[in-house]
Design a protein that fits this description.
The protein is mainly alpha-helical and 224 residues long. The chain contains eight helices and four strands, in the order αβααααββαβαα.
């Protein structure tokens, strides 16, 4: 069994292929794409990430200066307090999967609270370690086969053209997502002693999570 660090290395390499796809999209269709460094309209509100994303995020977070980490943790604790008002009794290990899906997969879209890892300049503080969903957002995710994994895009993008009709935006999404799922199973096995298909949290909660005690405290979140 491989250790978690090696698995996270492989996952980060996979995420870099997603970045390469996005970069190619900018090269071929950049005149239709508003996404640029400092554009942070999508870095607000709460959206779920996997436990593996959370672990990689924490790797990058630990590299930040102490003062920067402290400020992000203060913001994360404020978000936790809001969630505990919504879900009384919600606590460690801050996994969402024991809650009804609609409780956490349909968070309010009008929530404009910045991500705790968003810098004052509008850039991500842990950009190289950001979750998969952050790398995919803004463009439709259409496989080379034509299979659609997401047919939505940022409203600032493609204002004069239908991106679903642009073959240069397509990529091997199915292959990438299958690789992600395999790595996630391996990661959860190494962490918890059993492979899992789904364990999710929010970015602010990932910063507060204690991975050292996670295997013994997952409780109902692992029973689904």
């Amino acid at each position: 069994m491989r250790d978690q660090s090696a698995i996270l290395d492989d996952y980060r390499a996979l995420l870099e292929t997603v970045d390469a796809w996005f970069a190619r999209c900018l090269e071929t269709a950049g005149r239709h794409i508003h996404c640029r460094p400092g554009c942070s309209g999508c870095c607000r509100g709460l959206f779920d990430i996997t436990l593996m994303d959370a672990a990689l995020l924490r790797r990058g977070f630990e590299l930040l200066p102490e003062t920067v980490r402290a400020a992000a943790l203060t913001k994360s604790r404020a978000r936790l307090s809001e969630l505990q008002e919504r879900w009384p009794g919600f606590g460690p290990p801050y996994l969402l999967n024991h809650l009804p899906d609609a409780e956490w997969t349909e968070m309010p879209e009008e929530d404009a609270t910045p991500c705790p890892l968003l810098g004052e300049d509008g850039r991500c503080l842990v950009y190289a370690f950001r979750p998969m969903t952050c790398r995919l957002h803004g463009l439709p995710n259409i496989d080379r086969s034509g299979e659609s994994f997401s047919d939505t895009w940022c409203t600032l993008n493609f204002t004069a053209v239908d991106p679903l009709a642009l073959p240069e935006l397509r990529w091997n999404f199915r292959r990438a997502f299958e690789a992600e799922l395999n790595l996630f199973g391996e990661f959860t096995y190494s962490l918890l002693g059993a492979p899992r298909k789904e364990l999710d949290t929010f970015i602010p909660l990932a910063l507060l999570m204690d991975f050292a005690t996670l295997p013994g405290s997952c409780g109902g979140a692992l029973s689904r």
